Amino acid sequence: MNFSKVCVFLDNGHGHNTPGKCSPDKKLLEYKWTREIVAELKPLLEQLGCKVEVIVPETIDISLTQRVKRVNILYNKYKKAGYFCFKEVKYEKRIYVR
Questions:
Q1: Alpha helix segments (H runs only) across the chain
Q2: Cα separation of 44 and 41, whole Å?
Q3: Span 49-58, pLDDT tens digits
Q4: pTM exceeding 0.85
């Protein structure tokens, strides 16, 4: 299968300065874990021929609004260039009761 005209957007989420984004024992830090996954996934997708864009290359927190703007700009850029871009955003509001 030819993936040369497929673009994948990887959003690695929160930055190191986002409070509370860790496991209860503080051993698993979300920003670190997601960046490790992106660092491993990006070259694998590129080996398949995909164009890969990392939405948050910074290590600090970028607001969801800014991340969405970045995705929309990239989506429009690659769509115009003839790439297949699948854009899906899922937002689920969770309410935790203690």
A1: 30-47, 64-80
A2: 5
A3: 999 999 998 9
A4: no
